[in-house]
Amino acid sequence: MKKSIIALLITTMVAAAALAGCGKGDTDKKSEGVMTYSEYVQASLDTEVTIEAYVQAKQGWWENEGVGVATLYTQDKEGAYFLYNAQCTQEEYDKLAQGTKIKATGYKSEWSGEIEIADATFEIESGSYIAPAKDVTSLLGSDQIIDEQNKFVSFKDMTVEDAGNGKAFMYKYDDSGSQGDDLYFNVSVNGKSYTFTVESYLTGADTEVYKTVENLKIGDTVDMEGFLYWYEGVNPHITKVTVK
């Protein structure tokens, strides 16, 4: 009798696990006509692409020749997509909370090594996903790191270097700016230095990360999170800095 009850419990648990797995698969499945991330990667530049992904962050909304646009950092469980100047109204932009699922159609483009979807239109769908930060510190300096382009990533135990002006950061890439502009700072690991950015349209002067970078000192050890943007090489848009 006891064996029968145990067997029944095991059968029930296995069936429940299988059902849960099936539901998860349905959630991750792309809609008809939507590319998988692999298909997107293989698509040629300047061709139309349609993707489904989840908004991880967004840059400020503005009007371009009378049309509302915004730049979106999006990701699914396979890869990430950077939508540059996606068309949207202010009302649509306000609805794009972190994790919001969208279906977008635009043109796969390249700018200084950054692969993006330009001039996209999108619609909001049901579903939510927030990507965990993937530690890519060990990939810095390798050819493999480009496979993580545009993902939400983290960097551990990096050292703040001279930004080129005797300080730990610069306003704009050439130190010609002022507070409110992008911040550029150099960090190193394993003897190699990299330039990271605090993108002011994404995280402006009133944000914690902006203020933290303004207070960095050469020699500080930091952990960081951000999006693996690309400009002639690795140039992450950093959203969090922790001084250790």
Any chance you could write out the topology, listing elements then pairs?
Elements: H1 2-28, H2 37-42, E1 48-58, E2 62-64, E3 67-75, E4 80-87, H3 90-95, E5 100-111, E6 114-128, E7 134-135, E8 152-160, E9 170-171, E10 183-189, E11 192-198, H4 208-214, E12 221-227, E13 237-243
Parallel strand pairs: 4-6, 7-8
Antiparallel strand pairs: 1-3, 1-5, 2-3, 3-4, 5-6, 8-10, 8-12, 9-10, 10-11, 12-13
User: What's the number of helices?
Assistant: 4
> In CATH, what is the homologous superfamily of the largest domain?
Nucleic acid-binding proteins
CATH class of the largest domain: Mainly Beta
Q: SSE string, helix = H, strand = E?
A: HHEEEEHEEEEEEEHEE
Arithmetic mean of pLDDT: 91
Please tell me about this protein's structure.
- It is globular and about 50 Å long.
- The chain has four helices and 13 strands.
- It folds into two domains: 92 residues, Nucleic acid-binding proteins (OB fold (Dihydrolipoamide Acetyltransferase, E2P)); 110 residues, OB fold (Dihydrolipoamide Acetyltransferase, E2P), CATH 2.40.50.140.
- The strands form two sheets. Strands 7, 8, 9, 10, 11, 12 and 13 form a seven-stranded mixed beta sheet that branches. It has a five-stranded mixed barrel with strand order 1-3-4-6-5.
- With 244 residues, it is of the alpha+beta class.
Quick summary:
The protein has helices at residues 2-28, 37-42, 90-95, 208-214, and strands at residues 48-58, 62-64, 67-75, 80-87, 100-111, 114-128, 134-135, 152-160, 170-171, 183-189, 192-198, 221-227, 237-243. It is α+β, with helices and mostly antiparallel strands and 244 residues long. A hairpin with a 4-residue loop joins strand 3 and strand 4 (80-87).
